[in-house]
UniProtKB/TrEMBL annotation:
Descriptive protein name: 3-phosphoshikimate 1-carboxyvinyltransferase
Gene name tied to this protein: aroA
Binding, 3-phosphoshikimate: 28-29, 33, 174, 176, 327, 354
Ranges where the record places region Disordered: 1-21
Pathway: Metabolic intermediate biosynthesis; chorismate biosynthesis; chorismate from D-erythrose 4-phosphate and phosphoenolpyruvate: step 6/7
Catalytic reaction list: 3-phosphoshikimate + phosphoenolpyruvate = 5-O-(1-carboxyvinyl)-3-phosphoshikimate + phosphate
Gene3D superfamilies per the UniProt record, alphabetical: Enolpyruvate transferase domain
Similarity comment: family membership: Belongs to the EPSP synthase family.
Assembly mode: Monomer.
UniProt cross-references to SUPFAM superfamilies, sorted A to Z: EPT/RTPC-like
EC top class named in words: transferase
Segments forming domain Enolpyruvate transferase: 16-436
CDD domains in the record: EPSP_synthase (cd01556)
Record GO biological process: amino acid biosynthetic process; aromatic amino acid family biosynthetic process; chorismate biosynthetic process
Length: 448
């Protein structure tokens, strides 16, 4: 839906080659964290390249509600005057986090060890998503949560007045849960320890270290053991947000399936905890190269070049790679439809609790467009039809999920018949320039 709640039906018609340079926006995960950590520092944090998608704008608003001064300086430049660890004020009103699981879960963590109370809510998608995964560990610090049945929003968190540090093993592979615990640990005395069996995106750890916190990660038999020393004074930073590999996924995947395409996607972060899709595509035979590989701000970065790939083959995606490409399975399933043979995706139960049940949303929409999909609780299999053989021609539901909407619009670019999406509005949460960017490359997208 648009910001006003009116659905925006969209169509993507088969198109000629996609060509040119795709400058995708800033990384969503790093943008949220820049605002939150800036708000928890003493002094001014300067951010350039911030993603100005609705999810991040909602987090900016929330940081103001907790007392930080957050200023939009134009063209992706933002300034945050923070209040320091433990300095959050009690918000006067309910905090609306829109569509963003990352926003609400990280902010809950950041406020849970201060003696303040805050109530959180979101849109129809966010209010269905599980929050107990965050409030369970926050209770160990001494915070209390009261929400709807099943641990859903709207929910009130009463922060711990005398927080105690916590040792917590994250039961699901989730960077949001890990980050919520670490942010809560900031205002607890002593050492908070988080253990994750599978490595998930490590932006919080890297950025906390950058802001001056004492934080270490040890790889042990138990998994990654992350130890944070509480009550640091975080030092404001100058942050250049790298471009988002999860947004790069769309022009990259579209180029692989539209005949004759050749697209350059510059400056993409290839942090190994985020780059699983690109490895998988190369395993499938994609003509995808990393040009000009370099390091920027401590992160590996390269320009991605994707060309039409006539010989894509289905593969079994290594389940241990799932966390590093968790947001990319929807668009991978679209590429899989144009490959030869089956693409098997296992160990992906988390896809069922994203902005939508992404296995269900993609399987239903792909089947409606003529693609064979099997699925179970934590797996799905797409049977590829080869290039030029995917029928398309049907309308699908995006379920208030930006990545579902963009994935099906990519499907329409290479299918035999146009594909329609009931509501492209949610795309604005993460990739507000998707439509002009893809159209500029040669896609035929229309609002109906
Ligand atoms: C994110 C973590 C992931 C991912 C989400 C962003 C983050 O969620 O799906 O889009 O910024 O920490 P989970 O922690 O639920 O896996």
């Amino acid at each position: 839906m648009s910001a006003h709640g009116t659905p925006i039906p969209m169509q993507s018609a088969p198109c000629g080659p996609l060509n040119g340079t795709a400058n995708v926006p800033g990384d969503k995960s790093i943008s949220h964290r820049s605002l939150i950590l800036g708000a928890l520092s003493v002094g001014e944090t300067k951010i350039s390249g911030l993603l100005e998608g609705q999810d991040v704008l909602d987090t900016a608003k929330a940081m103001r509600a907790f007392g930080a001064e957050v200023t939009d300086l134009g063209e992706g430049n933002w300034s945050v005057h923070g209040v320091g660890v433990g300095g959050f004020a009690e918000p006067a009103n309910v905090i609306y986090c829109g569509n963003s699981g990352t926003g609400v879960r990280l902010i809950m963590g950041a406020m849970a060890t201060s003696a303040i109370t805050a109530t959180f809510t979101g849109d129809a998608s966010l209010n269905k998503r599980p929050m107990a995964r965050v409030t369970d560990p926050l209770a160990l610090f001494g915070a209390q949560a009261v929400g709807r049945d099943g641990g859903r929003l709207p929910m009130t968190i009463v922060g711990a007045a005398d927080p105690v540090p916590v040792r917590y093993e994250v039961p699901v592979p989730s960077a949001q849960v890990k980050s919520a615990v670490l942010l809560a640990g900031l205002n607890a005395p002593g050492q908070t320890v988080v253990i994750e069996r599978e490595a998930t995106r490590d932006h919080t750890e890297r950025m906390l270290a950058g802001f001056g916190a004492e934080i270490t990660t040890e790889v042990t038999e138990e998994g990654r053991v992350i130890t944070l020393t509480g009550q640091p004074e975080l030092k404001p930073q100058v942050i250049a947000v790298p471009r988002d590999p999860s947004s790069a996924a769309f022009p990259v995947c579209a180029a692989l399936i539209v005949p004759g395409s050749d697209v350059l996607v510059p400056n993409i972060g290839l942090n190994p905890t985020r780059a699983g899709l690109f490895e998988t595509l190369r395993d499938m035979g994609a003509d995808l190269t990393y040009e000009n590989p370099r390091e920027e701000g401590g992160e590996p970065v390269a320009d991605l070049r994707a060309r039409f790939s006539p010989d894509l083959k289905g593969i079994e995606v290594p389940p241990e790679r799932a966390a590093s490409m968790i947001d990319e399975y929807p668009v991978l399933s679209v590429v899989a439809a144009f490959a030869q043979g089956q693409t098997v995706m296992r160990g992906v139960k988390e896809l069922r609790v994203k902005e939508s049940d992404r296995i269900e949303a993609m399987a239903t929409g792909l089947r409606a467009n003529g693609v064979e999909v099997e699925d179970g609780p934590d797996w799905w299999i797409v049977t590829g039809m080869g290039h030029g053989k995917v029928p398309g021609g049907t309308e699908v539901e995006s379920h208030l999920d930006h990545r579902i909407a963009m994935s099906f619009l990519c499907l329409g670019m290479a299918a035999q018949q146009p594909v329609r999406v009931d509501d492209g509005g949610p795309i604005a949460t993460s990739f507000p320039i998707f439509e002009p960017l893809m159209t500029g490359l040669g896609a035929t997208l229309t609002r109906l």
